[in-house]
Amino acid sequence: MPTIEKVPVNRLRKAVEERMDFLKSQLLKMKYIKTPDGKQLYELTLTELEQIYENVKSEQRK
After folding, report:
1. Model pTM above 0.90
2. pLDDT in the model for residue 3
């Protein structure tokens, strides 16, 4: 079984924060500011941001 490289927590945290910042920036460029239930982008998890980004991106392609 292959071994999984241990990534320092700080590096992982920074990568997650950078990805979240990127997604929030892209969503704002697409004029997406709040979720339908009123949550601001900064209140969302990485998973929620990823899902919304993909949904908004696919809607704009139509």
Report:
1. no
2. 66
